[in-house]
């Protein structure tokens, strides 16, 4: 079931979104060679605690999967999404995707960034830039009256013309009372197809882009998703509220309701 959110409800999601932005900013600032992904998780957990917010990541998965142990996902290099924070020490030249979420009074927000660790290759830097730009194009396409296919097509066209590939096995999602609600929001598709975007629709858009082929596989830990060919992958995500005035980025880093151009 797709639920449309009221301004009062999205105000709570924006509070959660502001906390998510703070978690990501603090993690980004702490990323350097030698830091462990577990240390970043503790930094993010401290911010949740300070705001009295709950984690929508920690404990996720039950009963199908082992409970996710972190408040963030940390996915390094060929890891696409859902990497488990722990003892892994970041190294110069790595790229690290950080996915973070928060719940305020039952309302969820979810966002991700991918950051370079020290100096990275030109190829890695371009992957990050293209993936972030793809998210920007997706946000710009999230206009009331358009369709989810317009969002997917905007991402797919841009990424593929850059010679990179879009992951198909994982998609964006509706968000609100739960982190994952209907509808699914693919990062690929045909313009003017799919669900029509209505006022009050809240979605998390999250392009995952690979340097090599789009296929993925899951590691034995049952969480970590990696590229099947071992190529580098990047992930950027924002939670949006679709309004008559345009998409509002609820997880914007400035903590305000930035309206996409
Ligand atoms: Mg998400």
Main sheet makeup:
6 strands, antiparallel
By CATH, the architecture is named: Alpha-Beta Complex
On the 0 to 100 scale, the average pLDDT is 96
Shape descriptor reads globular
Please characterize this protein's 3D structure.
The chain is α+β, with helices and mostly antiparallel strands and 261 residues long. The protein has a single domain (7-259), classed as Creatinase/methionine aminopeptidase superfamily (Creatine Amidinohydrolase). 28% of the residues lie in helices and 25% in strands. The protein has four helices and 15 strands. The chain has helices spanning 7-30, 37-51, 122-141, 148-161; strands spanning 72-76, 79-81, 95-104, 107-116, 165-166, 172-174, 181-185, 202-205, 208-210, 216-218, 225-227, 233-235, 238-243, 246-249, 258-259. The strands form four sheets. Strands 7-6-8-13-14-15 form a six-stranded antiparallel β-sheet. Helix 1 (7-30) packs antiparallel against helix 2 and helix 3 packs antiparallel against helix 4 (148-161). The longest helix is centred in the N-terminal third of the chain and has 24 residues, at 7-30. It binds magnesium ion.
């Amino acid at each position: 079931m797709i639920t449309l959110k009221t301004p009062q409800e999205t105000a709570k999601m924006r509070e959660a979104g502001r906390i998510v932005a703070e978690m990501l900013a603090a993690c980004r600032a702490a990323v350097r060679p030698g830091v462990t992904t577990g240390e970043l998780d503790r930094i993010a957990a401290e911010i949740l605690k300070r705001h009295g917010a709950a984690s929508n990541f920690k404990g996720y998965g039950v009963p199908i999967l082992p409970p996710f142990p972190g408040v963030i996902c940390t996915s390094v290099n060929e890891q696409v999404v859902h990497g488990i924070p722990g003892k892994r020490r970041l190294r110069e030249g790595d790229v690290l995707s950080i996915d973070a979420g928060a719940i305020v009074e039952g309302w969820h927000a979810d966002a991700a960034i991918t950051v370079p660790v020290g100096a990275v290759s030109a190829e890695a830097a371009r992957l990050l830039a293209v993936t972030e730009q793809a998210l920007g194009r997706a946000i710009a396409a999230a206009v009331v009256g358009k369709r989810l296919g317009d969002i997917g097509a905007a991402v797919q066209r841009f990424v593929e013309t850059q010679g990179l590939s879009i992951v198909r096995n994982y998609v964006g999602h509706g968000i609100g009372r739960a982190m994952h609600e209907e509808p699914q929001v693919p990062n690929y598709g045909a313009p003017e197809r799919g669900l029509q975007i209505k006022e009050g629709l809240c979605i998390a858009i999250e392009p995952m882009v690979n340097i090599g082929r789009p296929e993925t596989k899951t590691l034995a830990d049952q969480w970590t998703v990696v590229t099947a060919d071992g190529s580098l992958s990047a992930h950027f995500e924002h939670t949006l509220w679709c309004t008559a005035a345009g998409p509002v980025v609820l997880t914007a880093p400035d903590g305000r309701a930035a309206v996409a151009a």
